[in-house]
Amino acid sequence: MSRNANRIILLGGPGAGKGTVAMTLVDRFALQHLSTGDMLRAAVAAGTELGKTANGFMSHGALVPDDVMVGLIQERVQQADCRLADGTPRFLLDGFPRTMPQADALDRHGLGPDVVVYLVVKDEILVRRLTGRRSCPKCGNPHHVEFAPPLHEGLCDRCGTALVHRVDDQEAAIRKRIDLFHSQTDPLVQRYAPLLVTIDGEQSQERVARSVIEGLRALEATGS
Ligand code: ADP
Ligand code: ZN
Questions:
Q1: How far apart are CA 90 and CA 114, in angstroms?
Q2: So what's the pLDDT on residue 3?
Q3: Hey, which residues does 118 pair with through a beta bridge?
Q4: Per-domain residue ranges for the chain?
Q5: Residues whose CB is under 5 A from ligand 2 (ion)?
């Protein structure tokens, strides 16, 4: 890419398909995938202080406070797997930033994105996807009872782990997450307008993946 895409941000509502696109981008561009949702769920499972703090917010579909999230990301990106040999930060953010202050923090630390991939999906479709979603607690691979049933009932196609219905994938928490997405995260779309690759996230998974790769290649071609 003539414009070096060292830092990519994935934007999109809950259930928009960020996790799936992340897997495609990681395969294609060899970047470290940083999913704040996965990081927080791992902390909850491990029973750390962070996990205890985060759990109360997450289970209701609320956002974890900005200072906690900024601290978590700032610490994580120091690690060698998020840097090129010359020290340039290189990673894919999935689930961060979710608020203006989180985006401000990235800029302040010289970690702003080169490209922002925005997955657009209507609210009714987000609700349908999330209510039927069954997630792999180990590898993050998402399934859906209706749209993407696992080959063996209740087990992850990728790693065989028992799938879970996330507590925040229940109706009330889903509504709240979508409302928060509109009030807190939508403004980031304007903020990142010049860096945006906008993708129709209602297409099939294969088409979404192809559109994202094509969108990034188009940037490479124009070097814009
Ligand atoms: P989804 O995108 O499907 O809503 P995630 O797995 O990305 O789910 O996040 C799950 C939950 O983790 C969020 O609802 C929120 O409680 C918390 N969380 C994740 N990232 C952030 C963030 N950047 N700021 C605040 N809370 C976050
Ligand atoms: Zn799995």
A1: 10
A2: 63
A3: 11, 198
A4: 3-222
A5: 136, 138-139, 141, 156, 158-159, 161
For the Cβ of 135 lying below 6 angstroms from any atom of ligand 1, the answer is no
User: Does position 2 have pLDDT exceeding 60, yes or no?
Assistant: no
Interval 118-157: pLDDT, tens: 999 999 999 999 999 999 988 888 899 998 999 999 999 9
Other CB atoms within 10 Å distance of the CB of residue 190: 8
Ligand nearest to the backbone CA of 21: 1
**Whether residue 95 has its Cβ less than 6 Å from ligand 1:** yes
Q: What is the pLDDT of residues 84-108, one digit of tens each?
A: 999 999 999 999 999 999 999 999 9
Active-site annotation, residues: 18, 98, 133, 166, 177
Residue type, 7: R
CATH of domain 3-222: 3.40.50.300
Cα gap 123→211, rounded to integer Å: 21
Q: Which ligand is closest in space to the CA of residue 142?
A: 2
pTM: 0.91
Provide CB contacts within 8 A for 149, sequence distance 6+: 143
Nearest to 116, CA basis, from 107, 124, 108, 125: 107
In whole angstroms, what is the distance from residue 201 CA to residue 27 CA? 19
Q: Is the pLDDT of residue 1 over 50?
A: no
